[in-house]
Specification:
The structure is a homodimer.
Chain A (H helix, E strand, L loop, with lengths): L7 H11 L3 E3 L6 E3 L1 H20 L3 E2 L5 E3 H5 L2 H7 L4 E6 L2 E9 L4 H11 L8 E10 L13 E11 L2 H21 L5 E5 L11 E8 L5 E11 L1 H6 L2 E3 L5 E3 L1 E8 L1 H10 L16 E5 L7 H16 L4 E3 L6 H10 L4 E5 L1 H5 L2 E6 L5 E5 L3 H26 L1 E2 L5 H14 L5 E6 L3 H11 L2 E6 L18 E6 L3
Parallel strand pairs in A: 3-7, 15-16, 15-17, 20-21
Antiparallel strand pairs in A: 1-2, 4-6, 5-6, 7-8, 8-14, 9-10, 9-22, 10-11, 11-14, 12-13, 17-18, 18-19, 21-23, 22-23
Chain lengths: ~475, ~475
């Protein structure tokens, strides 16, 4: 098997295929999400959806096909998305009068409808989310991380004023940070995007950024304050309390199935996947060892454990197939199952099982009488441990002492020579797009975000050396 | 407002718009599902999904775009679906080499993938379901019931032999019947479709059929035994225990957002929607009456009731807006909220509230101390009552004594004269497609299904008068 060190991308592809998360399809850049891959998404959906509803949002569903003329209405939006759109041009044997785009995002369709739905300040805020498939016909694709079709949620809200809309934008970013950190055990930096990295049509874009094990960044979620730009383009007005017409202020925010890819790239190791317990399709696998077939008590006991764990809401599997224990250990490690329980005749004599956490080297002996609580504790502990390991890794590879383009180039070169990860750098930025562009051209590092809580603050621009207006994370990104 | 009696279709459209379930969009035949409409779907999804998982199924997600060549592989399938397909012909500024269809259903894409996934009898059965959007570009559309884009679930399973596949087909039909009857309070007849009404590419199609309040039928769910037709078309083979290659036997089964439309058309009345409690977005609305603004105790008490109901998992709203009670009563009736609670100063003196069930004329007095349990009881009672009302209505309008085409025509004409509903008829059928076709041409009645448990059995064909091989429900259908 390819190692992470030798070829991270190849390791990633091999790992997700062997773990049975996805398959390629004959449609360019479109993957099939197999049950173990899709179930990770279902756990993410469940948690996100719960938090959206707790904060007053409701789900709706909007048409997937968007008339070409809708895109024309907001000029930044069409500029940003038109290079990637697939088009329906014929249906039921006839050529359409107007081309219909497969939605890359739904601001335009929703803007059109909100202009009918919103009449008065009494109708506001409108707090709606949609779970849907979207399309971006990109040249380079990577399963889960960047696919032509992907699954996501997109929130679209409308508010009486900027203050209320900005509050919403921040609230949703916070929810994203909490879910990604608590559920996926992925530490993220939340912050503001620079203008060149904004969503097409946004006044302000905020993101959470995660570091993969090869040091690259993944934008794990974004939340946009759209100002009145879409309200003006689609004429979304309300009658305020003084009986005057005003444009609403809108927001949008999204997370997608790229989170599945991020989990793999943050936690996986040379043995395959490591899944945080809260999203693992199988949390515990039970494996009989030794001469268990001659000793029916072994399977009886494992059946009891299975029933007890299931009753406590733990997702458990019993592997009583004919393969050897070693083969099974390997297979379930590959799939990233958090906990393996081994039970053989000798363990039974001692009234114990062996517990192996996927991310630890040593096995623990567990008294059979304490098994449910011991597993519950280990699942919780492992969830925190994975987060801490990922945070330590990120902090070690997020450099804060590289202050010039030359230093960055030296750092990249020496990383290459030493076979280490160049990682992220925290650097000052004068605010000029040209400096950002030059950093990108010379190093492939792009600005990720301006963190709300940077580890330190920078005073000079990494590129021109002038006074820094912002302290920015730069990284190579997916 | 239009009445059901005068113009049922117009009543339906007005009702779902006033109840805020949907909106039209500029894309032909595509609607927006507003939150109150979408939430009905969420409740359906939750219950279906739970039952699918209980019976060993897992969710997955397959690409929406299907290469044209895939459709060519199963000839009945392409014949059935090609007149309704929308096509993507260009993407990212370039013409595609092969047109891609927006999926009308996924047998072909899934067949292609299963041929890679299934190798041995150990891989079987494959039990996968998908929640997705699908497209059928139909000429006549009706919100929820028949739209160009709709939401559905499609199960796709593969089995070692016919027996196992047919067992699955029946199991899923039974789940559909149970969910539609128990959750949506819609009585259905389960049975087998005649060959002319089969799914394009199926060996056998089974359906559940529901009667709307205008007497028309809606096919509320279908389950297909596909034999080895798709396995042969896509080369899905497995190595059996005797080490020989065999084709798998496949099934597919689906229910869609047309269930939302069915609920409206089965339960609604002249005052608007009537929603079965189990799927109502709001189950209970609390409305202060009388001079409540001068008496802060009223709202305090309603707040207490709100909290108590919410704590018990009941979906409750408090309407303390400035509108008159009469206006509010009307609005919440229109939305089909199962229970309205009224509280005014006089009720407070008597330590009671008034409870009005949406489908009953009389109000009940409820002691404030018993309010949660009284509401819980009423929600359960109402759920059963709606089912019984719908069953009585259906049985009254499902005629079993019309045995010739002439009698059917007379029945239709006299219904028209009397302003009554012609409804369904149970009739004998000789098994000849031509007889079915003639019934359709002359009366617009089509065969709905051959019920497993018909109220009675017929001996002569309604059309040719020869011996009946089957007893069939005929009806005008959506």
């Amino acid at each position: 098997m390819t190692t992470q060190q030798n070829d991270f991308s190849k390791w990633y592809i091999e790992t997700i295929q062997k773990a049975d998360l996805m398959d390629y399809t004959p449609v360019r850049g479109c993957i099939a999400f197999k049950p173990d891959g899709y179930e990770i998404w279902e756990h993410i959906q469940e948690e996100m959806d719960r938090r959206f509803k707790e904060t007053g949002h409701r789900n709706a569903y909007f048409p997937m096909l968007i008339p070409e003329s809708f895109f024309q209405k907001e000029k930044d939006h069409i500029e940003g998305f038109s290079p990637e759109l697939p088009w329906v041009t014929e249906a039921a044997g006839e050529k359409l009068e107007e081309r219909l785009a497969l939605r890359p995002t739904s601001e335009t369709m929703i803007g059109h409808l909100y202009s009918n739905w919103i009449k008065s300040y009494r109708d506001l805020p409108v707090l709606i989310n949609q779970w849907a498939n979207v399309f971006r016909w990109e040249k380079k694709t990577l399963p889960f991380i960047r696919t032509s079709e992907f699954l996501w949620q997109e929130g679209h809200t409308a508010h009486v004023d900027e203050e209320d809309a900005r509050k919403e934008t921040m609230q949703m970013l916070t929810i994203y940070k909490e879910v990604v950190e608590e559920l996926l055990a992925i530490p993220v930096y939340d912050g503001q995007k620079t203008p060149s990295e904004r969503f097409a049509g946004a006044v302000d874009t905020f993101s959470i950024e995660a570091m993969m094990k090869n040091g690259k960044a993944v934008q794990a979620g974004t939340s946009h304050y759209l100002g009145t730009k879409f309200a003006e383009a689609f004429d979304i007005k309300y009658l305020n309390k003084a009986n005057q017409h005003e444009h609403v202020h809108t927001t949008s925010w999204g997370t997608s199935t790229r989170l599945i890819g991020s989990v793999i790239m943050v936690h996986g190791d040379e043995q395959g996947l490591i899944l945080p317990p809260r999203i693992a399709p199988t949390q515990v696998v039970l494996i009989p060892v030794g001469p268990w077939k001659k000793n029916p008590e072994i399977i009886e006991k494992l059946d009891d454990i299975f029933a007890a764990l299931k009753k406590n809401g733990i997702r458990v599997r019993l592997d009583d197939s004919d393969q050897s224990p070693g083969f099974k250990f390997n297979e379930w490690e590959l799939k990233g199952v958090p906990i393996r329980i081994e039970l053989g005749p000798r363990d039974l004599e001692k009234n114990q099982v062996l517990l192996k956490a996927r991310d630890e080297d040593e096995k623990q002996s567990i008294d059979l009488n304490d098994i449910v609580s011991a597993i519950e504790v280990e699942l919780t502990t492992m969830q925190s441990r994975l987060f801490e390991k990922a945070r330590t890794f990120r902090d070690e590879n997020a450099h804060t002492t590289i202050d010039t383009l030359q230093e960055l180039q030296q750092h990249i070169n020496s990383s290459k020579e030493n076979g280490t990860i160049p990682g992220w750098i925290l650097a000052g930025w004068c605010g000029d797009d040209a400096c950002e562009e030059k950093v990108k051209e010379e190093t492939k590092y792009t600005s990720r975000n301006i963190p709300f809580n940077p580890p330190t603050t920078k005073t000079t621009c990494i590129c021109c050396g002038n006074e820094a207006k912002q302290t920015v994370w730069f990284a190579q990104a997916y």
